[in-house]
Amino acid sequence: MGPRPSLGLRARLLSAFALLCVVTAAAVAGGMYVQARTEILQRTQDAAVRAMTSRLQTLYPLRNPAPGPDELGRIARTVADGNISAVALYHGTHSPADPRPGPPAAPGSGPPPWRQRPGGNAPVLDPGVIPAELRRTVADGEIAWQRVVWRGEPVLIIGTPLLIIDRDRTTRMSGIEVYVARDLSPEQRSIDALAARAWLTGGAALAFAVVLASLATRGVLGPVRELGRAARLLGEGELRTRIAVRGSDELAEVARTFNTTAAELERHVEQLRAMEADARRFVADVSHELRTPLAALAAVADVLDEEAAGLPEPAGRAARLVSQETLNLTALVNDLIEISRFDSGVAALAPNEVDVAELVRATLRVRGWSESVRTELPPAVTAWLDPRRVDVILANLVGNALRHGEPPVSVRLRADPHRIALEVRDHGPGLDEAVLPHVFDRFYKASAARARSEGSGLGLAIARENARLHGGDLTVANAPDGGAVFTLSLPRRAHEPGGGSG
């Protein structure tokens, strides 16, 4: 399995910003909701407690310390109105018209917590909905309240004991407990509406923040993309590539650094190119200057070679050595001159339509290799080539195979309507895998698997340059059953002089 595709920098920035906005909006909305709910309920609760205690003040002093049902009903009606239901209990006893007391009902079951007293206007609280914990707290002489949910509706229940004030201003429990229930549905609707507005505001703020984040990331990533594009162009060799510097922030500093680096790189590359051109020019000039004295030396070497047989053995051996090294030096100078033509761009083709099979046979025949090399040359294969340059390529490949490989050496021709391919193969040990990438390098000689070369080390480099001058290529590989295989691939119609395509 390949690596998982990762989100781009823009997507990651937007996701992180959106997540931050969501968390912030949720925290703000949640905090606003809790604060508003607490304030609204607390305000409602305080108002209900104040109203209840204010109305109960009108009952003092108690006219009947041991009230009956009618008196309890009058007490309940004192604190009840259209929005608040009430019940007054005396040691758990209440008006016969009211529901009988019993254990607290389970939340969400039973009748509503208030009902209209028959024949009256004040709603009566059902004692069954009063939580037992609240009743115990009130029975202990404390005013208390508790919010409960009845059938999905929030209800505030407040309870307080009534006290008897003696003549000495001391107080004691009267046994009367008054409970009121206030419907909190209007307040809950207000809280829900406020929460909805908070979430809507948070959603709108989130959308606005995402838009701003998108614009901000575009402003940040735009220069980054431009920097990436410029770096790719610089890597492709466009050394004059620069990017615009905008502002004075960190991105602008990166742009200035890139431009400075690119300028320095261009300057160094230009210096290296100039030095390389000077070196090539020097080699070409020296090679040309050596041609005349080498021609004279070659003539003298020929004479020495002819006379070597008649000279004493030490002198004859020296004469033959001078002759051979003169020939090697002449070949090196000629190769240097040839490679300098490719470097300077003045090498040109002189193409003709040739019979490829006959060209191969002529190359082998002239050098006396016809009996040493196997050929597989289909007839009637013609191509528009420079015969001299193809001859140089074949001579180098076959000569290397004969000198460094093992027999049999073969030349095979393959063709299709557009290209020809000439394979030169030997059956020796082949080339080391570490050597293959460097075979066509200039002055590279590999002696690990082959005998020491007497050549200049430029032959294969010149051969590949000749192939590329035709619009083709020269490659090398090891055959599965042993031996090196050089493949010369050329178009059937090479480029004509002047750069035109024939």
Automatic annotation (TrEMBL):
The keyword Transmembrane helix applies. Transmembrane segments: none annotated. SMART domains: HAMP, HATPase_c, HisKA. Residues 91-125 are annotated as: Disordered. GO terms for cellular component: plasma membrane. InterPro entries: HAMP_dom, HATPase_C_sf, HATPase_dom, His_kinase_dom, HisK_dim/P_dom, HisK_dim/P_sf, Sig_transdc_His_kin-like_C, TCS_sensor_his_kinase. It is an enzyme of class 2 (transferase). Residues 98-115 have a biased composition (Pro residues). Pfam families: HAMP, HATPase_c, HisKA. Its EC number is 2.7.13.3. Residues 218-270 form the HAMP domain. Residues 285-494 form the Histidine kinase domain. Keywords: Kinase, Membrane, Phosphoprotein, Transferase, Transmembrane, Transmembrane helix, Two-component regulatory system. Its main location: membrane. This is histidine kinase. It comes from Planobispora rosea.
